[in-house]
Amino acid sequence: MILEKKAKPVLHRQKCPGCGYYTFYRAEPTGEKATDTCTACGHQVEIAWHADIKAIFNNSEKLFRDLEAVCPELKELQKPGDRVRFD
Ligand SMILES: [Zn+2]
Question: Where are the chain's structural domains?
Fold first, then answer.
């Protein structure tokens, strides 16, 4: 598998360690790294950008769909900036 030279930003859902919400993160690839930014609070982390990263995002998307069965609130995560929290 060959890395795309100009990879596009990828939106993916995850729990943010910055604000504690389940929200969208936007991964902006720059070479072998990507800046992953919380669309709710702006928290940033650097992640390694590699050929398998999309498979990882797809896997976590599957996890989120499974979680939706238990936590229907997660379905409210539709676009960047949306956030959901469970306490
Ligand atoms: Zn956040």
Answer: 10-79
